[in-house]
Amino acid sequence: MTYKAFDVAKIREDFPILKREVNNKPLVYFDNAATSQTPQAVIDVIADYYGNYNANIHRGVHTLSQEATDAYEVARQKIQHHFNAQKAHEIILTSGTTHSINIVASGYATLLKAGDELLVSAMEHHSNIVPWQMLCEKTGAQLKVIPMTEQGTLDKQAYANLLSEKTQLVFVNHVSNALGTVNPIEEIIEKAHAVGAKVLIDGAQAAPHIKADVQALDVDYYVTSAHKLCGPTGVGMLYGKEDLLNALPPYQGGGEMIAEVTFEKTTYADLPHKFEAGTPNIAGGIAFGAALDYMNAIGFDAIAAYEQELLDYATTALKKIVGVQIYGEAPQKTAVLSFNVQGIHPYDVGSILDKFGIAVRTGHHCAQPIMDYYQIPGTIRASFSFYNTTEEIDRMLAALERALQMLQ
Ligand SMILES: *Cc1c(COP(=O)(O)O)cnc(C)c1O
What we know:
Layout: H1 8-13, E1 21-22, E2 25-26, E3 28-29, H2 40-53, H3 63-82, E4 91-94, H4 97-107, E5 117-121, H5 130-139, E6 142-146, H6 156-162, E7 167-173, H7 185-194, E8 198-202, H8 214-217, E9 221-225, E10 236-240, H9 242-247, E11 258-261, E12 266-268, H10 282-298, H11 300-319, E13 324-327, E14 336-341, H12 346-355, E15 358-359, E16 361-363, H13 368-374, E17 379-383, H14 390-407
Parallel strand pairs: 3-15, 5-6, 5-7, 7-8, 8-9
Antiparallel strand pairs: 1-2, 4-10, 9-10, 11-12, 13-14, 14-17, 16-17
Bound molecules: pyridoxal-5'-phosphate.
């Protein structure tokens, strides 16, 4: 399957859900930053697993177990190659971004001491804030915040000033889920390394739009979820440099993660199994690989260019509506439009749009500190994917005008 030119009509055929109606209107799905839709190719991979070779992995000598193990490990290699990790065992399969961050944060409990400093950006998802706060409570380390600007970018000078030899870890999202800002992670990583700090990049929102190269970035940890990039829910990855993952204590104890168990002492398995206790989401892992295949066949450059067109089109049109305020106008953005209409609660707008079959998200988008920065309760967020169209954006704008007539 290769797409010569960007043929959105053909791409839409791949997604069965795009044919359904909501409230007697064709579905317009603009909640892609929360989760993406799933192409038939990925749905087929999941059905094929349960229909033909469902078995537990890594343990059995029987044929089904070997087939399942092979498919799971092939998926790991696909993920490795996609993110250009040097070694397959540097890819830990997890239940998603949240799980991945918790593995790292809980591991550092034994590696930090009181007085150490951790830097977090002001525009993080709660899953890249709370685990670190818990870590600080355990260790006496201090969490410091890299401030953001009105435009929705990080304050680079403030970041440089916060870095010191006390800084042990820096965590920043590659792309903000609430604003769409693409953060300058190359620079952030380089500056952190200059003071000896390690960096974790939350790639959950970037991965559907940008193909990150973990070796070129020289990033220490990179995490993402499959469900934001056309894969299933409940599966994701933690990339970590081999020596760092070896130094990190295991997160959960159980089957699969051990080398030898006696009641006196247990020794841990090698990477990646040390961090993969218990039976994983086997079908999910295999489907994660299939989702990457699907997106790579279309091509990330083509996807990014098309989504940029959608974003520019929608931004220009939205600005013409009286009373609309857009949050986050960084020069480099993915296709996320976060906005409010003067005097109207975002929830009310979202509810009316739903009546027109249009799915947007309203609220704080798991990034309450950003809302506090702008002193708002939340925003309306329309987030576009490569299977969306300008016609759908027109429908949202028309519905929005109707909603405003009803509410103002
Ligand atoms: C979605 C998202 C997360 C959380 O991902 P889960 O799959 O819920 O673990 C974290 N960070 C960002 C930037 C996200 O967009």
